[in-house]
Structure formats: C-alpha cells, structure tokens
Amino acid sequence: xxxxxxxxxxxxxxxxxxxxxxxxxxxxxxxxxxxxKTLIFFLLLCGVCWFLPVALGSAELATIKGYQEGGIYSWxxxxxxxxxxxxxxxxxxxxxxxxxxxxIYFIIGTLSDVLGIPELxxxxxxxxxxxxxxxxxxxxxxxKGTRITEKLAKYGFTIGIVLPVFIMLALAIRYxxxxxxISTNFTNSHxxxxxxxxxxxxxxxxxxxxxxxSAPHITELENPKKNYPLIMFALVIIGVxxxxxxxxxxxxxxxxxxxxxxxxxxxxQALISPGKNTFLVIxxxxxxxxxxxxxxxxxxxxxxxxxxxxxxKGLLPEKYKQVNKYGVPVPLLIVQGVIVTIWAAVLTxxxxxxxxxxxxxxxxxxxxxxxxxxxxLFFLAYFVVIFKKQSLPRDYQVPGGVIGKSLVAGxxxxxxIAAIVTAFMVPDTMTKAEGKTYIVTLAVSFIVTxxxxxxxxxxxxxxxxxxxxxxxxxxxxxx
Length: 479
What we know:
Elements: H1 2-7, H2 12-23, H3 29-33, H4 38-61, H5 72-80, H6 82-114, H7 119-122, H8 124-141, H9 146-177, H10 184-187, H11 201-206, H12 224-253, H13 263-272, H14 279-312, H15 330-349, H16 354-388, H17 401-423, H18 432-464
Helix pairs in contact: 2-9, 2-12, 2-14, 4-12, 4-17, 5-6, 5-16, 6-8, 6-14, 6-15, 6-16, 6-18, 8-14, 8-15, 9-12, 9-13, 9-14, 13-14, 16-17, 16-18
C-alpha cells in the first residue's frame, strides 16, 4: 500500500498541470470572442468575484483537519451534513458526463478541419463512433493511476494550451503590425455588458469551473498544506491571463460569425495562411486537440476519485469502492463510460434537426447550472465554517478575518446565483417555440437532477452510511 501511494505521489507542477487542464482550455476562446470587448469585463468579473473566491475557499477548506480527503464531498458534508456533501460530489460528477461529449466534439471539429476530413464531423454515425473511441481510449489510459494522468496533464497544458496561446499572441502582434484592421467583432462592442449579452455571463463562469475538482488527489500531492494554496493562487493568475489573451485575439482577428467548433483553427488560418491549411496550422490544430484530450483525461479521474471516497463511506454500493493495484476506481470508470456513451448517442443523433439543436443547447446549460448547484453548496458550507467552525485547526486562512472571508463567500455565492438566472434566458438564435421548449426542458431537467442525489441518499445512502461520515453534522442541526 505504501509503495502504491509513493508511486502515485504528485509533484507540485504535476498537480498544478492536472488542475489547470481541468478548466484552462483553448476550446472556449471562440465563445468568449463572440462577446467582443465585453469578454475582458466578464473574465475579470468572474475571475475576481467568482474564480478567486472558489480558489481561496478551496485553499482554506483543503487544509482544515478532517476535511482533506474526498474533496468537495468533505468540504460540504462536514459543515452541512452528509446528504449535502453527497449531492455536491454528485453534481460535480454528473455535469462532466455531458461535458466530455462537448469537449470531444471540439477535438473532432478541429481535427476534421485541419486534416481535411469533413465527414468526421458531418456524418452522425462516424462522429458518434469517434467520440466513443476517443473517450474509451483515454479512459483505458487512466487505469495505471495518476502517474499517466499527471504526464498527460503536464504535456497537454504546456504544449496544448500555453504554447498555442503564446504562438497565437505572437502571430497576432505580427498580423496587426503588418497593417491588418482589428475586426468589428471587437471594435464595435462595448466593455460593459448590456441586456443583449448579459446572458453570456454563464459561459464565462463555466471558463473557471473545475479548479476544485482535483482536490480528491490532494493526499497524493507533495507537502499539500504548503503547496495547495500556492497552486490555487497561481491558477487564478494564469487562468485569467490566458483566457483574456486567447479570447481577445480570436475576437480581434475573425470577422463575421465566429464558429464555436472551428474558431481557433480559423484564427490560426487568418494569422498564418488565410483560406488554407499550411503545415503550421495543421500542427497547431493537433496540439490544441491534444490539450483538450489532456483536459478530458484529467476529468475522467478526478470526480470519480471523489465518488470512490463516498463509496468507502457506505453511500454507494460496496463494489464502487473497489480499486485496482494502481488505486484507480475501475467500476466507477466503467459506469461513467456507459453514461458518456449514452449521452454521445443522444446528442449526436439528435443534432440533425432544430429540436436536436435545442436539446444540445439545453444539455450544455444543464451541465452549467448543475455544477453551479455544487458551488452554491460549497459557498454555503464555507459560510458555516466561517461562523461555526472557527476553532478547527487549519494551515491556511483566507485573509481579512470573518469580514474578509464573508466577502469572499458572498461574492462567489451571488455570482453563482446570477449565472443560474442567466442560463434561463433564451438565446437569440432560437425561435419563440424553440425558446419555450428550451425553458421547459431545462427547468424540468434541472429539478429532476437536483432531486436525484437526495432521493438516492434517502433510499440507500442514509441506511448504509458508516457512522463516522456524520462527524460534524450534529453540530449544525437545522441547517
């Protein structure tokens, strides 16, 4: 056991890269770019008022004695009670089962473009098979433990995210110095949002989601008490800087409608060889795809490790706590893979009609608001820690005492609620009938999904949980 633990020990940069690859990604730049100059406002707002509170709160909660295993399950479950901790880890995991498909769609769109294989992205059966093959291959790679995940994350982050972004920046500087005009997508927009683009807030919150998802691996990090807070601070700075650079360049270079799937490749084409794929464009497209693959890889293991911890507490059937000799929860990965395969079929074969497009957009919005539900529980739990758990020993404290901590938690909570509200604003691209379908489907799906973990806990978890899982909740009856 000690040998396995030692074998899976992660360096500071390895943990940093794995966490960064959970949320820092190139594929969201076209979405940001559609907002023009407003993207800078949104990225700064969400970075300071949401991302920073999540990072600061995570850094403190992760160093509290007794809160260091299980990630968001323990952070929420200890202060609010086991059922809320179970709901938080469920929401964190469930949203990514849809997110995997959308991330792999970007990979397919990029590769089909740079490799000149449009059929890969246009023929539903071929697209579905490609999604499934990519996902299951990446799942199989995780079976040898976090060593593989760490390596993929390191290379994916450095050559699949950081390198393309700085190449894009350098090319953009050369492009504008050569006399090219800045796109009206950027120049005709305003820094502050208005009623026409306020709904974009949810996309920018999504850009920073996931920084806490690596927390279940904190016990594998070298010197976690010192290194985890340092890593969180570094991630905030790098996340905001890279997203602002990438989104701004795409917005300033591309004219007209910006493609969500191919916007990054279109930008490289415009900067290097307008209208055609040169060798450099192809290489950059492959590197960006590799970066997204690394992100998928990191997401495959992080939430499932949290679920395995939950299973070890009796809240899931016994078989789901089983791990192989490398400490990987194989039964959970199989269940996750089956669910992702089902989502891939639903989204791929349902996207050929208007209703399919509505279903796809509904699924994306659903993933965001479900994840935000976990964050709302996270901030509420942090409030309880601030006011009722001050005596618990910890190695890091958010600066400013009770007032500073309350401000941090309050900002994060308010932005989370605001983002959920904006998700229920009908996109301009939908007709009135489609908008009605979108709202009804989203609302019903949201309510049903919110109920799932609480119903499951009531019917199974409460009866099978081990007594030690309720360590803190007796202190806060009535919460």
